[in-house]
Amino acid sequence: MARPPVRPRAGRSLVLAAVFVCAACGLVYELELVALASYLIGDSVTQASVVLSVMVFAMGVGSLLAKRLCCRAAVGFGLVEAALALVGGCSALVLYATFAWMGESRYVLVGFSLAIGVLIGAEIPLLMSLIQRTSGPEAGLRGRGRRTDDDASDDDPAGTVAELFAADYVGALVGGLAFPFLLLPWLGQLTGALLTGAVNAVAGGALVLWVFRRDMTPRSRALVVAANATVLAVLATATAHVGEFEGAARRAVYGDRVRVAVQTEMQEVVVTGGLAGPPELFLDGRLRVSGHDEQRYHEALVHPAMRGRHARVLILGGGDGLAAREALRYPGTASVTVVELDPGVVRIARTDPALAKLNGHAYRDRRTRVVYADAFRWLRSASGTYDVIVSDLPDPGITTSAKLYSAEFYGLAAGALADGGRLVVHAGPLTTRPRTYWTVEASLRAAGFATRPYGTRGRASGFPAGPDRTGGTRAAPADWGFILATTGPRPTLGLAPDAPRLRTLTPASLRTAARLADRTRPDDMIPSTLVHPRYGN
């Protein structure tokens, strides 16, 4: 084989640079699949486990298959990188398309994990062959029989492997940090994956066409050039039309009434309706608020906890402002503090005409104060106490919310309650996911609370639930389950003497809901803790 057209040390450095770039791109593909799978399917722990375990297995398969290409390592690496750039770059686009138009993306997710894993696994054996080629067949004696420094490393295969893997691991570090801090917030999932694919194709193609072009026949060089040019053309075309694709896919998922669709630093926020009908708020594809029935939910959530002193109210979550609206209806409410993680949700709830009207312009009320923080962390350092704490947080069946339904979290909430104060928790559907609901109740009791379970009817029959994947189905929940808790005697369900006129809630309906809930109580529920979360979809 011909000697590379660059000095051995320069060739070695270029190979290691390619290893660095390709490793960064490979990890971005992995994280992209995990993030998109968690968003589209839910249960992030399960999806991350599936993607990573399948991918690691496939990497082993790819390493074995690459043995057949090592005799033609240059052209093999060029084609492998072109394929990886195409598959990895388009993976997010195809996954989202299958979800939007077919409603199911699990099998596609596994397929991409396998394909990307095989291609990543094939990289290292080929790169090992290439880095050994950088010194050429004449490595050893040169000139007057003296070895050069450039050749010395050729006699140290262990050092070569160490350098190769060091570049690979450092590249993975850079890719892992670039995904959440640069690609995702600046470009989004689709464009970020496409751009990563383009970088991958350029890095792989440039390495073999420059440093190892003498190892390839004219036909092989033409094949690598054509493959990379085609991949770059496909990625560029997809990037140019990604906005149109997102709009069409969003309409397929949410319908034709999308008015607001933004990607905040935390999640995708979509608002539909609001002009010809009630608005709907979706957070990461999950239906969080529906103007059709939100009053039934928020009245049942807030008003039972307002029976007693309610001058200081703390709302954990509830960035839509609807729980605050209900608390502010009481003349005895002196302050309402909303602790919300995502400023984008509050911004939309404050400025969107339909949502602002729905929440009664709660954020214009001088009694309302907003704190942007993680509820768990904020409670750990919170000063002062509250008469009422309303836990209006994402469903406990969502893995990322598990810590907000743990016994430790409720212990922190107990410390923030004033004497005689009440905590009310949204605990998920009582009839469709009873084990999740009663795990919340067991966690509250483990934190020292006395509890009173109750619920309210869910969305009306025939109501379009939209792409709510919390329960793995698009069906509307039959009910919402709540738990009223105090650190003293078991609380009594009822309404405050100064309660405003309510549309859906009465003392009689509360008592009936409590009796129905108690009849379903199991005997064997174990509390959920930080080290042993017990929630799931």
Automatic annotation (TrEMBL):
It is a multi-pass membrane protein. Catalyzes the irreversible transfer of a propylamine group from the amino donor S-adenosylmethioninamine (decarboxy-AdoMet) to putrescine (1,4-diaminobutane) to yield spermidine. Pathway: Amine and polyamine biosynthesis; spermidine biosynthesis; spermidine from putrescine: step 1/1. Its EC number is 2.5.1.16. The lineage of its organism: Bacteria, Bacillati, Actinomycetota, Actinomycetes, Kitasatosporales. InterPro entries: MFS_trans_sf (IPR036259), PABS (IPR030374), PABS_CS (IPR030373), SAM-dependent_MTases_sf (IPR029063), Spermi_synthase (IPR001045). One of its GO terms (molecular function) is spermidine synthase activity. S-methyl-5'-thioadenosine binds at Q267, E340, D374, A375. GO terms for biological process: spermidine biosynthetic process. Residues 233-487 form the PABS domain. GO terms for cellular component: plasma membrane. The keyword Membrane applies. This is Polyamine aminopropyltransferase. Homodimer or homotetramer. Its main location: membrane. Belongs to the spermidine/spermine synthase family. It is found in: Cell membrane. It comes from the Bacteria. Keywords: Cell membrane, Membrane, Polyamine biosynthesis, Spermidine biosynthesis, Transferase, Transmembrane, Transmembrane helix. It catalyses: S-adenosyl 3-(methylsulfanyl)propylamine + putrescine = S-methyl-5'-thioadenosine + spermidine + H(+). It is an enzyme of class 2 (transferase).
